[in-house]
Write a structure and sequence with these properties.
seven-stranded parallel β-sheet, alpha/beta, single chain, 30 helices, 630 residues, 14% strand
């Protein structure tokens, strides 16, 4: 065991060496390890040190899974530091759509699945100039030489692709078989469409890899979203128009019948279970054909449309193909207990949704096939919630790493006598919270982050007068805000930290409360407003019932309570990234005093939490002033 050899820093932080040793031993035993540790601990560096010391000594490989581009970049950054001590080859790879520079293919894609299909079509037909150029001018040889000397980021290949008119994905794909460490987005081991081809590109099957899953608390929801699908009336109407343009009378009749059925079925409720069996019977009665036969016809003709458009230099998009793919999925899942079908919305906003209830279908193979697995996050408790939902075999080990932050660096205040509980959401309650938030922000030297339980709670705070009470600039994450606009807003917010401070109003469980770090004065105080319990819905009830059947008595815990706790905990940890960070955590809801919540929030957050009434505003402000004054 040569952990120090592969550790990129001069000394270990508290808990790092213990993590590295646990990782090494887990791989040695070909087992599974779960690590919980706060941001700022340096989990990635510690896990890499333990993993590299084993995989390099034993001629196996390392596969790192991450959810966001930023997390993938961070892995390669750490690996580059290691490579200054010991030569190590490694690459990162984003989703194929995010790596693409072919605008025609990008603009014609509905989603990742359709992009893969269009990409393959463009390559096979010789119509992708970027793919064709990749193997010209010695580009590949030059890129391979550079990669042998220094770990390569997906962003490096993307920039090279843009400037040299080559395919970034293909550049990375060429490096995969020879790379000791491969860092990829979840998609590559979760999406059934891409897994087989990805494993083939790696050059070895999964039994030769140690799989490390970063921010692993996100894996179940990601897997469920990959397995789910949705189709709108609007897409169906576009498919009808497409069939008319191509003089496909039968296809037009099929799809128009589906539109009529959806418009005339169901009640006036916002959502209800879709009677797929009745739908299939009605289709057969009308046309004498099964649903999957009609779906196959749509899919096959849609493929022909896309091909003809591509070779004529037009955007290869087909709504008929999209309808066919969805109907096949609908047919395949009709009798599966792990899926439900939901009809929701009215008029042009009506949709049919295929909802996957069991993420194990997409991720269980990882834990069965990999040499060993390491799952890590700042919020992994309770252990059973993760192991049950993703299907990790018995015997998993758990390491709860100590916080690197001293007690005097963290002040947690649980504010009682306020709540976002649905039946108590009144103007007076929101106004009380908004006034207190404003006073906390005024007495915070740098920035303040406010993460509401939902967009509805966010609107309640604004209606309660938050804008008027604040004397600092307010940045609001709107629900419909694009990623580009959100990124710009966050950068502007962060810059205010050293200019008197500002306030960010966002939501828990979102892009700004989980995928973003705010070190230093970028966020001194974080206010978590409410516990983000999911709204009652058909999907939630089905999820609870499904888990109750699989894990008796645990349905509500697994589907309702634990996800809310994780979202709140993720938001609460945002100000802490650097070892020098100090911050105040305000948990603004009486329900944070519930035993089930307190016990399953990270211990470093709750260890010395102070409990104060919202009616004691002066006491709260005094505690905050004293904390920042010391």
């Amino acid at each position: 065991m040569q952990i120090e050899k592969y550790f990129p820093y001069s000394s270990f932080r508290k808990g790092q060496k213990e993590i590295a040793i646990a990782v090494y031993q887990t791989i040695e035993e070909r087992s599974h390890l779960i690590i919980e540790g706060p941001s700022g601990l340096g989990k990635t560096a510690a896990v890499l040190a333990g993993a590299l010391s084993h995989v390099i000594e034993n001629n196996v490989r390392l596969l790192f899974l991450a959810r966001t581009h930023r997390e993938l970049e961070r892995i390669i950054d750490e690996l580059r530091l290691v490579s200054t001590k010991v030569p190590v080859s490694g690459v990162s790879l984003r989703g194929k759509l995010e790596m693409c520079v072919n605008l025609q293919v990008i603009e014609s894609s509905f989603d990742h699945r359709s992009h893969i299909e269009l990409c393959n079509l463009a390559v096979k037909s010789g119509k992708c100039e970027y793919y064709n150029h990749t193997y010209e001018k010695g580009v590949v040889d030059d890129f391979v030489r550079r990669a042998a000397e220094f770990p390569v980021k997906a962003s490096d290949a993307y920039e090279m692709g843009r400037f040299q008119n080559v395919c970034p994905y293909e550049l990375i794909r060429i490096l995969l078989p020879s790379s000791k460490i491969v860092a990829v987005s979840y998609m590559y081991l979760v999406n059934p469409i891409v897994i087989k081809n990805f494993i083939k590109n790696l050059g070895q099957d999964l039994s030769n890899f140690v799989v490390i899953i970063d921010e692993a608390h996100n894996l179940p929801d990601f897997a469920s979203s990959v397995l789910s699908d949705i189709l709108s009336i609007r897409s169906l109407r576009e498919a009808v128009n497409e069939a008319e343009r191509y003089n496909q009378r039968e296809l037009k009749e099929y799809i128009q019948f589906i539109i009529n059925f959806l418009e005339n079925t169901g009640s006036k409720n916002d959502e209800e279970l879709f009677n797929t069996r009745l739908f299939m019977d009605e289709v057969y009665a009308e046309f004498g054909l099964s649903l999957n036969t009609i779906a196959d016809q749509c899919r096959m003709y849609g493929e022909e449309i896309k091909y003809q458009l591509l070779i004529s230099g037009k955007h290869p998009r087909s709504y008929i193909h999209r309808v066919g793919e969805f109907l096949l999925k609908l047919y395949d899942t009709v009798d599966q207990k792990s899926y439900i079908h939901i009809l929701s919305g009215k008029a042009e906003k009506r949709t049919v949704e295929i909802v996957a209830l069991d993420p194990r279908e997409a991720v269980e193979h990882i834990f069965k096939e990999a040499l060993a697995t390491i799952s890590m996050s700042g919020t992994m408790k309770p252990l059973e919630a993760y192991t049950n939902i993703v299907g990790i075999p018995d015997g998993v080990k758990f390491v709860e790493a100590p916080s690197p932050f001293l007690e005097e660096q963290v002040l947690t205040i649980i504010v009682k006598d306020v709540t976002t509980k649905y039946e108590l959401r009144e103007t007076e309650m929101y106004e009380r919270m908004a006034r207190l938030i404003a006073q906390i922000a005024i007495n915070t030297p740098g920035n303040t982050g406010v993460f509401a339980a939902s967009y509805e709670v966010q609107r309640g705070l604004l209606d309660g007068g938050l804008r008027n009470f604040l004397s600092k600039p307010l940045f609001i994450e709107l629900q419909e805000m694009s990623s580009k606009d959100n990124d710009r807003m966050i950068q502007e917010f962060k810059m205010m930290g050293d200019k008197g401070g500002a306030v960010l109003l966002s939501v828990q469980g979102g892009r700004n409360s989980e995928g973003e770090d705010y070190p230093g004065s970028q966020m001194d105080t974080v206010i978590v407003v409410g516990v983000p319990f999911a709204k009652p819905s058909i999907k939630l009830k089905a999820q609870i019932d499904y888990y109750d059947e699989l894990f008796p008595g645990k349905g509500k815990l697994l589907a309702y309570l634990y996800p809310a706790i994780r979202k709140a905990a993720q938001a609460a940890g945002r100000p802490f990234r650097l070892l020098s960070d100090r911050g105040v955590i305000i948990l603004m809801d009486s329900r944070f005093l519930w035993k089930e919540i307190r016990e399953n929030m990270p211990s470093w957050i709750m260890k010395n939490a102070k409990i104060v009434s919202a009616l004691s505003e002066n006491k709260i402000i005094h505690m905050i002033r004293s904390f920042y004054k010391d």
